[in-house]
Amino acid sequence: MVDEGRRRWLKWACGGLACGIGGLVAAPVVATLAWPARAGRRVIGGADDPIAVGAMEDFGEVPRRVELAQEIRDAWAVRPRVRLGGAWVVRSGDQVRAFTTACPHLGCPVGYDAAERVFRCPCHTSSFDGQTGERKSGPAPRGLDPLPLSTEGGLVQIRFRRFRPDIAERVEI
Amino acid sequence: VSRLGDWLEERVGWRAALAHALVESIRGGASWAYVFGSVLVFLLLTQAVTGVVLAVTYVPSVTDAWGSVAYLQDQISWGWFVRGLHAEGASATLVVAGLHILQVTLWGAYRRPREVNWWLGLLLLLLLFGFGLTGYLLPWDQKGYWATRVATGIAGQTPFVGDWLQRFLQGGNEYGQLTLTRFFALHVLVLPAVTLAVAVLHVKLFRRHGVTPRWGKDDAPTQPFWPDQLFRDVVAMALTFAVLAGLVWRAGGAHLAAPADPASNYDARPEWYFLPLFQLLKIGGPLERVVALGAPLVVFGILAVLPFLDRAEGRAPRRRLLPLGLFTLVGAGAISLGLMARVSDGNDAALVERQAAAEVDARRARELAKLGIPPGGSLFVWENDPAVRAARVFGEECAGCHTGKDLKGPAIGPGYNSRAWIRAYLLDPQGARFFGRTKQNQMKPTKLDGPALDEIVEMIYAETGAADADAALTERGRQRFDASSCSDCHARDGTTGDDIGPNLGGRGTEKWFVELLEDPGGPRHFGEKNEMPSFARTISSQDRQALAKWLVSLRGAD
């Protein structure tokens, strides 16, 4: 009877210790793995400088695709001239608009269909107005995302931005 | 040998172990229908071996991954073949897994008491999909990069935890180095370990219950696994490998797209086994989220409960219409969605054209990679292209004086040294876009016109080495040149110097440009009136050569 009680205690102690050891190993492991996922953590980030893409005259009513590159920090590495993404730039008169090429559905790069004058996503067939970027058809939940730009001194400069895909609101990441 | 065997037997008991592995009675007799499990074991072992070989070369770094794969593919003997076996082997594994599941379902082999093993099998199927998904990204090429972005985007749609899950999977706020290392660790460490453990359990449970004989064969005589069944298994393995190796050979190995470029446009397409899911994503609207995330759950849910829906007396298919019908529905649904995706892509002429262009890019990038990946990483491989490189060197070293509004020498751009350029120059040598702003501005506009001017233009054009120069016209031009005041200032033999103007022999050829870049003040070029710096030190000899070639190419660009 004495042994019975002693053994029960030993069993519980074994289980408890094992759980404790497991927890001690798991805690730092989980913390390390989850580190990059914390909200607001910027594992990858750039200087966010405006990127010059050309003069006003270089753009017109037919959208032109430009590529945006900048120095960025990716985890431990600082890398020059990293190609961040593309933008469609369209000008009518004094008004210049820039849209990120990332489809607001799931991020595939949209192309321009000159015949139909629409932007088209090659993946899941969304289409957008060739001037305003408004959604015309397909699964995308909103229009193309505009990028902030300045045209000071006739030079078009764009800041690169990413937006959360597949929701109706426009939320910057 | 047998004494050595006895010696070892006494110490490790290998005969008993081998007997344990081989001695098994197959109820209802050996059958070709039972080979799929063994073939899967064989394929997984092949994947492990080829995977290790890939890991010997592969570097999981965003700057080096593509370059290391291209090196394996194009430089290491048989590298293309091993990588092909691994990539196509993944497809083969899923095909055979499909046949295995089909056989098990038809035979009703998931029924009591084998339910748990059926679930382990489904878990293994999920793990195979995990291998496919994570492996697709590792070359860090356009195809893997863009397709995987869509996949992690879908994970981001999960209710409540989507955002966090997406950041967790991609190792941060954006695709980058940590994304690649995470997928690499999953693919080569986590998934193999888990798969091995589950596969061992799967086989152990299978051995515990034995095979399920075909309906109506329960009373057929039993046969031993070794050699009756194992012979069939080995034949099937050999056939599978022959087909696999043949396909890899015919395709020239696995596909490798151009290095991943976030700023490019690329038509993301997943591997064939994810196409049904891809097609579902075209639905859009509030339904999409439900369907895209829900459909796989429903499919695996249906498969998981099949054993409970299948309680008929006996295993003959005609008594099991409900479970077999559900299975057929799920399978047919997946196949037709996949086919729809294929057909709609095939009918999209613009897409087909873009894919062909991407293919040209891929081949070009691999060709350029043979010159070595520049320090900036795989994407800088394009700068190995002499033309791209030369254009960049021109932009850095030459454009300040030779382009724009503040010219300090002749403007250089497309059409430079074409017939039209030569003619315009002769008519206005002191113009701002020619030599007007330099000390080389003594030459007077030509008074020639008509055929006479054509002859001189052709003769100077011929000096550039242009293949389309008219020989007769050139010859007349030479005679006119020698007889006219042109030859008072210019030689055209390409060797003598100290004339008033530059020697025109070979002017505009690659060799001439290289010499000009090295020694613009030399006697055959601008002599004492030279204002252009020598680039012999500031531009490497390789780049001077590339620049010369590029300058020559401008001629044909009008």
Percent of residues in beta strands of chain B:
under 5%
Average pLDDT of chain A, to the nearest integer? Answer: 91
Determine Rg of chain B (CA atoms, Å): 35 Å
- Which class do the helix and strand fractions of chain A yield? alpha+beta
Supply Rg of chain A.
26 Å
Number of helices of chain B: 21
Q: Helical region count of chain A?
A: 1
Could you describe the largest sheet of chain B, including whether it forms a barrel?
2 strands, antiparallel
* Nearest-integer average pLDDT of chain B: 92
Beginning-to-end CA distance, first to last residue of chain B: 82 Å
Strand content of chain A: 25-35%
| Oligomerization state | heterodimer
Can you give a write-up of this model?
The complex is a heterodimer of chains A (173) and B (558). Chain A is built from 1 helix and 11 strands, in the order H-E-E-E-E-E-E-E-E-E-E-E. Chain A has one helix at 2-34; strands at 44-46, 51-55, 64-74, 77-92, 95-100, 111-113, 118-120, 127-129, 135-137, 149-150, 155-158. Chain A has 173 residues and is an alpha+beta fold. The mean pLDDT of chain B is 92. Chain B has helices at 2-12, 14-22, 35-57, 65-74, 79-107, 115-137, 142-155, 162-170, 177-209, 225-251, 275-280, 285-309, 321-346, 349-369, 386-402, 419-427, 450-463, 471-483, 486-489, 510-518, 541-554; strands at residues 25-26, 223-224. Chain B has a two-stranded antiparallel sheet. Chain B is built from 21 helices and 2 strands. Classes of the chains: A alpha+beta (173), B mainly alpha (558). The interface between A and B is large, with 49 and 43 residues.
